[in-house]
Specification:
- Helices cover about 35% and strands about 25% of the residues.
- It has about 300 residues and is α/β, with parallel strands linked by helices.
- Helix 8 packs antiparallel against helix 9.
- The site of adenosine-5'-diphosphate has 20 residues, from helix 8 and helix 9.
């Protein structure tokens, strides 16, 4: 019952200031934080914190941030034997400015994440061929991603694609390689042209996505919960009531939770509800991977609802 994640590892460097800088301006921020980020790392950390045996496939540079990212993944319990050190590229970083209203500017340097290629997939064959669930996102090149999906699926794994971040031009990718796709509101609109603001609009968007292959579509609707769709049926997963502080990585904690629940054999509806509880809880803490909830926190929220 294992989870494999192929994806990005970033070091997030976040500066907090009253307002965002203008072009050419030097602005003094009042504090900064560094923390593990990247959608792959966040989803792996979320699954591992819940207690899943989680294997990561990825790359970091031969630098301080890379060593620190590996250490942090290990602290979450993520197995990093398939995280390689790439001497030709830097570790991925995200430089984030946040103002007092939570508005942000983000610059990402993908570095080693974009150097992932077929050799990383070949080197991780043991893990891809035995995993129960494979988690994928859009922050590494597509060819190795598709290869990993094919390889894991041939041995019976469920493949979950988070189409995030979705390029504005859309995703010109054969989605039939994926069992489950989990776009948020923005990604759903980019992929289908429909902005999902309620159950009927989410259902209409999901219908289009089913035609591209995935049998399960989960539209993440932020504070409105989620919409779970299969070709036969659809249902709104209502949001859990929480005091939201910081919504960064809510979607990643949702996907980590979904992978955990499915790998434990839960059916789709309770698995989506479990994932939604993980997403909701992550908004009650600051940070990306650091905001991932524990199993007892999730069980607590589910039992109070
Ligand atoms: P992303 O981070 O990818 O944009 P969302 O913001 O849609 O994703 O959040 C993912 C999931 O987390 C939602 O589908 C929902 O279940 C849960 N969630 C997010 N924000 C809230 C909130 N304010 N209250 C309750 N649940 C939330």
């Amino acid at each position: 019952m294992t989870i494999a994640v192929l994806g990005s590892i970033n070091m997030d460097i976040t500066a907090y200031s009253d307002r965002l800088p203008r072009p050419g301006e030097t602005l003094h921020a009042h504090r900064y934080l560094t923390g593990l980020g990247g959608k792959g790392a966040n989803q792996a950390a979320a699954a591992a914190r819940l207690g899943s045996a989680t294997d990561f496939i990825g790359r970091v540079g031969n630098d301080h941030f890379g060593r620190s990212a590996i250490e942090q993944l290990q602290k979450f319990g993520v197995v990093t034997r398939h995280v390689s050190i790439d001497p030709g590229n830097s570790t991925g970083i995200a430089i984030i400015n946040v103002d007092r209203n939570g508005e942000n500017f983000i610059t990402v340097v993908a570095g080693a994440n974009f150097a992932i290629d077929e050799t990383d997939i070949a080197g991780a064959a043991d893990c891809l061929e035995t995993t129960t669930v494979l988690l994928l996102q859009m922050e590494v090149p597509w060819p190795p991603m598709l290869l990993a999906a094919k390889r894991a699926r041939a041995k019976g794994a469920k493949i979950i694609l988070d189409p995030a971040p979705a390029p504005a031009a859309g995703i010109d990718l054969d989605l039939s390689f994926f069992d489950i796709i989990t776009p948020n509101e923005t990604e759903t609109e980019i992929l289908t042209g429909i902005h999902p603001h309620d159950a009927p609009t989410a259902a209409a968007a999901a219908k289009q996505l089913h035609r591209r292959g995935p049998q399960v579509v989960i539209v993440k609707l932020g504070s409105r919960g989620a919409y779970l769709s299969t070709p036969e049926t659809g249902l709104h997963v209502p949001p859990f009531k929480v005091e939201a502080l910081d919504t960064v990585a809510a979607g990643d904690c949702f996907n980590g939770g979904l992978a955990y629940a499915l790998s434990k054999g839960m059916d789709l509806v309770p698995a989506a509800r479990f994932a939604s509880a993980c997403g909701a809880l992550s908004t009650t803490k600051y940070g990306a991977a650091a905001a991932a909830p524990t199993l007892s926190e999730v069980d607590g929220l589910l039992s109070r609802a």
